[in-house]
Every structure is written in C-alpha cells, then in structure tokens.
C-alpha cells in the first residue's frame, strides 16, 4: 500500500489520497438538502453497516452544493469501508487491529503550535457577533426526517480534568439546539462525563472544543476505551503513533482548552453546570437520531448543555458527517475494539489469538469473531478463556464467536459455516447473564424479559465454533491444488468487484 500512500495529516490530504484510488471517492454538484436528503442519498451509495436494506458498502461521497451553505461542502462515508480505512492508515484491512495495538503501546504525545499557524483558525466567528448562528455556520445534516435536529455526528470532543489537567478526546452525539447552544449525550462511563461531573460539583463550567473534519487516524484513535486507554490516557497519542508524528493542537480563542489545529471546523464552548435541555425540544418527535444498532434512539429529556463561544474554520471548510448505523461506525468503534482484545489476550496466551473482527452486524461493539489456534491438547478450553478476556477488554461486547485458524473471521459466510458444522447449541454455548453492556441495545430491558433486572443489563454469550482438539483430524477442510489463477483469466483478480 505504501507506494500509493500520500502523506495523510488531515481531512484534505485524506481526500486527495482517495481521489488517486479508483472507486474510493465520488463528488456531486447536484444541490442537496442537509435535512434527511443527504443521508438518504448516501444510504444507497455506501452506508452499509446496520442500515436498513437496500444499502451497501461503497465510496465516500462529497456534496459540493449543500442548500443553505454555499461556502462549504459535506463529506460522508470517509471511514465507511474497511478497505478505505486501510488505505488511509497505510496497512492491510485485516491488520488494522494489530496496527492500533502497536500504536497504543508506543504513544506519541500531541504538541501545541501557535495560533498563527493553525489552519483551523483561518476564519473566526464569535458568539457575540451580530447574526451569529451555528446552524447557519455549520452544515450539520439530519440522518432522517424525524431526528431531534441537526447533529454533529463525528466531532472530536476535547476537554480536560480541572484538577489533574489530564485531557481526553472522544465522540458524542451533539444536537444543535439554538444559535449558540448544543445538547450533548453521554453514554455512562465516558471519561469526559467524569470531567463534566467534577466541574459541575464545583459549580464551574467545563471548557470543551469540538473539532470536525480531521485526520482519520484521530477519528479511529478517539474510539478507544478503558481498560486499554484508562482515565488520563490521551488517545491523541495513539493517533500520533499511527502517523509516527505528534498531533498538533492549538489554544482556543475564547476558552481555556485546545483543539486540533488543522481541523476543518472548531466549536469552542462550555458545558454549563446545572443546566439540562430536552433533546427534541425543537421538533417534539420523541426521537434523537439513528444509532449504531440500526434503531433510532429515543430523545433524552435532560441532557447537558454546551454554550457556544465561537466557531472557527478553514477557508471553504469541509463538513464531515456520518450515518449513525453505517459501516463508518463499525470501523471507528470496531477497530479499536479489535486492538483492545488482541492486547488483552496476547498478554495471557501469546500466539494463540490469530485475529479478531468486530463484526458489522454488531456495529463494531456488540459482536466479535475470534480466530483461535489450538496447537496441543492443553489448548482445549483456552479458546473460551480468550472469549472471557475479550469481554474484559471491551465491556460493551455482547456476543463472541470463536473459530479455528482455517476459518476467515472477516467472512460471515465462513463464520456461519463453522457455526453449522462445528457447533452444537447445548454443549458449545456459554451464557453469562446479568452483566452490564450498552444502553442502546433495545433488548436490554425488563419489558423484553423478566430475567433482566434493569435497562442496560444483558446476557453475554459465547458461541464456541471450534473443533475439539482431539477431533481436529476429522474436521479437515477439502484441500485444493495451489495454482496461479491469473494465468487463465488475466486481470480478473485485480479488478474491483
């Protein structure tokens, strides 16, 4: 891949790289309404993931004529293909988890550059300026017609602990509520929520920056979670390790916080202590936006509020957005999940776990396929220990499928073949009930089953689709003659299908 690799340092260089690779990026000058229409188009072009069919994995797409926002464009689907992520991070798609695992072990801390060098501050809009309105400045789309409002779906939220100064970056659901206000949804346990609660108890606002349109390495690294990146671990150092050079930050203009210096947009604001807002106060739909499991989340009645102080951006900025349940979420959440599982299992049983795939159907969070190699009789049972370690590495994981080394974990048909020919439900299923998982799973509710004590509690399950070691010789797959097929059909195996 490296022969094609242009140096990617920001969103624009990533787009330039994709332009050089056939089938990875398309543009349109056709006028598009950001309210539901833009996402409605991309649903057919390349959303994939858990989006309701018809959908597919396809190229990223740039809309150059967004109604109401004539000086900016919108890119969607940048990370909605594992192959494309591999191109942008300069590694093979099946090795992405290994790349991130190495990056976590060899972090490079971010650095701060001067304001005059920050491309993200080429144009500045202050909240006190006449006519200031973030809804007009930022072309944030809605995914559907019933969304609570325009959403920033891939903003890099950056804040710091008021006591320790430790910083964290993560992605949250941000709904534009008024000309200078946004609501912010927190999944329980996120590090920024710890910072916010600490500031609120002290009666102080929490400064926060939201950087939109950045290097894809930052977007993927931001999705790491504890225990791989515990409280106090700045995930920007993982992005630095991926690129082998430090991420550049810049001091914000109106708050005591930093932002990503080459972002397309930066929103500067403060989480206001003691103030809550109803997420759908402007639409009254009762809905928020489509989330990664494929369902639209319910609007929350009392979300923390960000008071916006300023918006800065590059000249002719490019807004980046995602469809909530698309393959884009799978890759951003799933690849760090794979890295976390690889790291945890390798420490316990080196060389046994060959690969991991955080499967599309689980949105990169709920389901993982572990490719495990049994080399000796004493390895029997260790595959299930690996599954237990996977649950420890990523707490929101719900289902683990374990397959042998001759099964491709990235090929769903191959995994289902193993399920059908190497699995018996009554002996190869392990149930772990009563464990907290992820609140967006609609089955995790007492209304679904009386065995569920409260919302967010799940039964985690292991599907052991591996052959018992003493029977391995009886489960050998048919072996075909090794040949060079390109000799018979020249060009066919290099063609994109």
What does this structure look like?
Helix content is 22%, strand content 25%. Strands 5, 6, 7, 8, 9, 10, 11, 14 and 17 form a nine-stranded antiparallel sheet that branches. It has a five-stranded mixed sheet with strand order 19-20-21-23-22, sandwiched between helices. It is of the alpha+beta class. The radius of gyration is 23 Å and the shape is globular. The chain has helices at 11-19, 37-45, 82-89, 96-105, 134-137, 191-201, 216-221, 236-243, 327-348, 382-393, 412-421, and strands at residues 25-28, 60-63, 73-76, 111-113, 123-126, 151-152, 155-160, 167-171, 173-178, 181-185, 206-212, 248-251, 258-260, 265-277, 287-290, 296-298, 303-313, 318-321, 353-358, 367-372, 399-403, 429-436, 457-464. It contains eleven helices and 23 strands.
Mean pLDDT: 95
Measured as a percent range, the helix fraction is 10-25%
The number of strands is 23
Strand content: 25-35%
Low-confidence stretches: none
Q: What is the end-to-end distance?
A: 19 Å
What general form does the structure show?
globular
Number of helices: 11
Structural class: alpha+beta
How can the largest sheet be summarized?
9 strands, antiparallel
Query: Using only CA atoms, what is the Rg?
Result: 23 Å
